[in-house]
Specification:
single chain, 326 residues, eight-stranded mixed beta sheet
Length: 326
């Protein structure tokens, strides 16, 4: 669909019909107010049915929407005095990751996030939001700087994954991601991570070790894309819809599994429908969380972070398994 996603089609069709009736009423002597009111009541119910009963694949489509707000969009609306910093001091600058110093309601913070483009030209410049190793090393450099000057770190996660190209592998893609995981686990300042779109594989995890992890209502967080999982499991990427359901990659699933701490509600239809309102939802969570984390002593902060990730995932041993080993 040009103006929306497939699951939204009934809503968009009804909105179009209401707009046509309004235009007709304005240009003629026929009063269709009663019919319009009935359709608007029907629209309200339809929107509730559609947006409150979204399937996992529907949420994947919303998370990938071309107009979904990016890290830069949120920086502009949530922070002041942002100064972008560039380069990893080893190889170069990676525009797939944006980072720098800013103020959040007067508090100095470091902001880092994946950044994709709005159009083809910008997507090419930003490598479609898929960072090279220098992007992750830049992020780590800014995190260590934040630790030195005692600034909280706020990470926005939105990437299909780390760039899998030959040049990235030659420059140590896996090592760069692993180093970020290791270093973030021990940073002495509060870290808040927010999955705003797609949280894909190690490319997302490299900015995802935090004291609090949040997900926007229609974002996803997974070890692989549904298409990739379907290709591996069933040798058929067209079964991505079924894979999305089986993988449990949506915010409600991950909250239930204990992977994330809280879901940030989205505006009706997705964050791209009203960026200003969506930023306000994030603002509420940031204010509350920073206030809480800044009161925790440094030693306890690190212990709590360790325990948080240690407790993700559970296992159990069946009696049959125990009998085999006895």
């Amino acid at each position: 669909m040009v103006n929306g996603l497939e699951f939204e089609k009934p809503v968009l069709d009804l909105k179009k019909k209401i707009a046509e009736l309004r235009e007709f009423t304005k240009d003629s002597d026929i009063d269709l107010t009663e019919e319009i009111d009935k359709l608007e009541a029907r629209l309200e119910k339809l929107e509730k049915d559609v947006y409150e009963n979204m399937l996992p694949w529907d949420r994947v489509q919303v998370a990938r929407h071309a107009e979904r707000p990016t890290t830069v969009d949120y920086i502009e609306r949530l922070f002041t005095d942002f100064m972008e910093l560039h380069g990893d001091r080893v190889f170069g600058d990676d525009t797939a990751i944006v980072g720098g110093i800013a103020k959040y309601k007067g508090l100095p913070v470091t902001v880092i996030g994946h950044q994709r483009g709005r159009d083809t030209k910008e997507n090419i410049r930003r490598n479609f939001g898929m960072p090279h190793p220098e992007g992750y090393r830049k992020a780590l450099r800014l995190m260590k700087q934040a630790e030195k000057f005692n600034r909280p770190i706020i990470c926005f996660i939105d990437t299909k994954g780390a760039y899998p190209g030959k040049a990235a592998e030659e420059r140590g893609q896996s090592e760069a991601i692993a180093r970020n995981l290791f270093e973030m686990a021990g940073l002495t300042v509060p870290i808040i991570c927010i999955v705003t779109g797609e949280g894909g594989s190690g490319g997302a995890l490299a900015l995802g070790v935090g004291d609090r992890i949040f997900m926007l209502e229609n974002s996803t967080y997974s070890v692989i894309t549904p298409e990739g999982a379907a290709s591996i499991l069933w040798k058929d990427a067209s079964l991505a819809k079924q894979a999305a359901e089986a993988m449990r990659i949506t915010a409600p699933d991950l909250l239930e599994l204990g992977v994330v701490d809280e879901i940030i509600p989205e505006v009706k239809g997705g964050a791209h429908k009203n960026i200003e309102e969506q930023a306000l939802h994030i603002d509420i969570v940031l204010t509350k969380t920073l206030k809480e984390l800044l009161t925790i002593p440094t030693d306890q902060l690190i212990v709590n972070r360790y325990q948080k990730f240690k407790n993700i995932g559970k296992y159990s041993e069946t009696k049959d398994y125990e009998n085999i080993h006895n």
